[in-house]
Each structure stands twice: as C-alpha cells, then as structure tokens.
Amino acid sequence: MTIHQNLIAGEWVGSDAVRNVNPSDTNDVVGEYARASAGDTAAAIAAAKAAFPAWSRSGILERHAILRKTADEILARKDELGRLLSREEGKTLAEGIGETVRAGQIFDFFAGETLRLAGEVLPSVRPGIGVEITREPVGVVGIITPWNFPIAIPAWKIAPALAYGNTVVFKPADLVPGCAHAIVDILVRAGLPKGVLNLVMGKGSVVGQTILDSPDVDAITFTGSTGTGKRVAAASIEHNRKFQLEMGGKNPFVVLDDADLDVAVEATVNSAFFSTGQRCTAASRVIVTEGIHDRFVAAVAERLKGLVVDDALKAGTHVGPVVDESQLKQDTDYIEIGRKEGARLAFGGKLLTRGTPGFYLAPALFTEATNAMRIAREEIFGPVAAVIRVRDYDEALAVANDTPFGLSSGIATTSLKHATHFKRNAEAGMVMVNLPTAGVDFHVPFGGRKGSSHGPREQGRHAAEFYTTVKTAYTLA
Ligand SMILES: NC(=O)C1=CN([C@@H]2O[C@H](COP(=O)(O)OP(=O)(O)OC[C@H]3O[C@@H](n4cnc5c(N)ncnc54)[C@H](OP(=O)(O)O)[C@@H]3O)[C@@H](O)[C@H]2O)C=CC1
Ligand SMILES: O=C(O)CCC(=O)C(=O)O
C-alpha cells in the first residue's frame, strides 16, 4: 500500500506510517499515513518561518489563482473526496459530499477575499498628518483540527490563513488524515510555493504539542475538545501569541406549544442525530413546553424509527457509525449515566450489529431529563439527546441559557414575539429559528460564547480579524 507522506518544506517525506480504518467496516483499511515526529514538526515550523517573508509579500493575483484552482479541483472531485471522507469519518455519503462542496465554496470565497483586501485612510486629529490603517499577515499559523469535519474545518482555517499572506503548519486529527492529505496535495499542485503550507500528520501529544511549545508559531487556530483547547490557551499565553479556540457545545433546541410540529420534529432530528450527533453545533438538549410535549416526543420517536443506521457508504443510510471505539464508549457510558440519573430512555441507545464490523449505535432519546443532569450539562458528542419538559417560554429560555457553553441555539415557534425575543436573548454565538442548530453557511461568521469559543470568529470576512494584525501609520504631510 502506498504511504501518504507528510509535506515539509515542499517535499513529501516520511516512512513511519500507520493504517487508518473505516469506522463502518474496520476490516477496510482506508490508507497508510506517515506519522510525523517532534523533529519533523520542528522542521515544518522552520520551513513555514522561512517561507513567510516572500509569501506575505506575494501578489494578490497569485494567491487568488491558487485558491481558485483549489476550489475548482475540490468541486470537480466532490464525489470521490466525499466518498473518502465518509469512508474515514463515517458520516453518510450525502453528508460527505455536502461537506466537500462546502470546502470548495470556502476556498472560492477566500480566493475572492484576496481581491477585496482593503485598509482605511483617515485624517489625524492633528492638522497636517495623515493616518492609514492596514492589515498585515500574522506570520506562521499552527492549524490543529478535529476529526468530525475532516475537510470543511481544515478548509475554513487554511483558506483564510493563505489568503491573508500567512504560512501554515497543519496538524489534522489522527483519525482523519486522508482528507487532510488530499487537500494539501491539491493546494500544492495549484502552485503554492515550497514551505508555505506544511502537513504534519501524527499524534496530538507529539505533533500538536510541538506546535504549542514552539516560539516560532505566531498564531494557533484550534477546534476540538475543551481540555485540549485549554492547553492551547495556556501555551499561547506563555508564548504571547494569538490564539483562537472552537470547543464544545451543549446546544439547546426549544420547542414551544405554538410550533409547527413537523418543523420542530425535523429540526430536532437533524440537529441531534444527523452526522451521528458528532457536531459541536448538534442540539443535545431539547427543551419542550408542556402543551406540545407528549405529541412532540411521540412524533420524534416515530421519526427515529424510520432512520436507517448502517454503513456510511450504503445508499439509504441516514445515520452512519460513531467515529471509533473510544467515542462509542463515551456515548454508551453517558447513556448509562443518564439512566442512573433517572432520565427515561424513550428510544434507541443500543449497540447495533450490521453486515460489517463497525461502531453502530441506535440514536438515543431521553425524556424526563432535568437540566441539572450530567447528560444535560456535559458534551457527549454522539447521537444522544435529552428532552427537558418546561412550563412556558420564560422557563425554556432560562434553561436554554443555563449552560457553561454558548455555541448554537434554536427555537421552533410560529410566534414572531418569541422568535424575536429568543434571537435577542439566547446566550449563543449562533441562533436558529425553525431551523436545525447545526449546518451553517460558509460566508458568514461562525463561533460561540462562554465555554465554547475564544477569540475572533471564523469564516466569512470576519476571519480577517484572526489571520491579520492591524497597523496604524501616521505621516506628516
Ligand atoms: N467542538 C468540536 O468540534 C469537537 C469536539 N470534540 C470533543 O472532544 C472529545 C474528544 O475528541 P478528540 O478528537 O480526542 O479531541 P481533541 O481535542 O483531543 O482533538 C482535537 C485536535 O487536537 C489534537 N491534540 C490532542 N492533544 C493535543 C495536544 N496536547 N497538543 C496539541 N494538539 C493536541 C488532536 O490530535 P489527535 O487527533 O492526534 O489526538 C486533534 O488534532 C469529543 O468526544 C468531543 O467531546 C472533538 C472533536 C471536535
Ligand atoms: O454545523 C456545522 O455546519 C458546523 C459544525 C462544526 O463545525 C463542528 O461540529 O465542529
């Protein structure tokens, strides 16, 4: 089997490789991927540092052409790349192709941003002096990504980093090196100069930690768990570098008595269970007012009965497997915790056997949960949701906001008054009305509040805030 190598200073290197398997069928080896050492990672950082002066001064047309070409190739190969994604991560083929298209659109968007770079010219408060405000690249950006969006998250970090003139050391999650390798290969063939983008696949404790500890990394953008996020923060403060964190969520979806039942059920099932619930924007707390509660729970259970949990690549599968054994254990441990806490398992929650050895779990719906239970407070990151019964809108809003997290939140209602009030008062970075909490646009800001996020927003033109640094220049006329 060919080894997919790391890219350091423009050279594909590495012979120490591991096999990556398909979570739908652990007998299926997706590929062999090189593992970078701490020394390889240091070499990648040095290469990015050496490439920075030239790349930061490169023409915007060159950057535009490379990003545009990358977008075109990703979009042209969406079926093949989407299939690779589903094979290594376990989301369904439709979800894998959808995510690949989103990655192509992100590269396209940031290709356009290179042509829209702008500054400001202002008069000084002192007569006879001019003031210019410009944005400059930050330097070497360390990009550390999770396994749950193996192509979209790397795309929404790599594309703006390069568009604004930074160089990159990219460390993808160990579970999903395939998509990472594929997009780096596309970018290099699109004409990226040597050293501008370096790929270091391997373990977080080795590769990731080397990036965190390096004084030559000027900024780190991270998506993943709260625990690792805190390490990124501590190391970055130590090195006085810029950092941006996207971490967990415990997102609420509120269903009011006046909701359209079909809309509420569809949004809940999508939010909680699609992509196997493995989205930081997934709704895992469904907060339902008394008047609709029983009808709503019955309708959700009915809808869940119709969901096919099976091999991600099979036609007709609605929910693929959990990503690996350790995440499956985390999910089933929490299902047991929920039972012991006194919540009622109204649907699913059992391990499933399919035609291939994979990590299959029936979507689990708890009812009679309270917001104090661990299943309502801690991120599970699987197809597990808890319904919490409340009296009215005011209590629903209070429960929705009673969480250490603040990424996304949603409401199902036909009341303009409640929708408007919820949009203004939900303590979250993103609010959805009659829509799932997950599944966001690629051209607008993405991010949260409280324990979910730190630093400037990702995506859209707001991404410039993290990937550039502002300079104010004064000139005596
Ligand atoms: N909000 C989100 O989008 C996500 C949240 N999670 C949450 O995190 C839990 C665990 O998932 P997991 O993938 O282990 O999350 P991690 O936070 O461990 O992984 C995210 C990234 O950080 C890397 N990493 C791990 N340790 C270090 C370190 N010491 N220094 C630098 N980088 C490091 C990982 O590498 P490697 O893969 O090699 O370990 C990976 O690339 C999930 O169950 C879920 O609750 C997970 C993924 C996404
Ligand atoms: O909901 C989405 O579209 C994005 C979710 C995401 O970025 C995540 O789960 O990490």
Automatic annotation (TrEMBL):
Stored InterPro entries: Ald_DH/histidinol_DH, Ald_DH_C, Ald_DH_CS_CYS, Ald_DH_CS_GLU, Ald_DH_N, Aldehyde_DH_dom
Active site: E246
Record SUPFAM superfamilies: ALDH-like (SSF53720)
Start and end residues of each Aldehyde dehydrogenase domain: 13-472
Keywords: Oxidoreductase
PROSITE patterns: ALDEHYDE_DEHYDR_CYS, ALDEHYDE_DEHYDR_GLU
PANTHER family: ALDEHYDE DEHYDROGENASE-RELATED
Family: Belongs to the aldehyde dehydrogenase family.
Name this protein carries in UniProt: Aldehyde dehydrogenase family protein
Naturally occurring in which organism (per UniProt): Shinella pollutisoli
Classification lineage: Bacteria, Pseudomonadati, Pseudomonadota, Alphaproteobacteria, Hyphomicrobiales
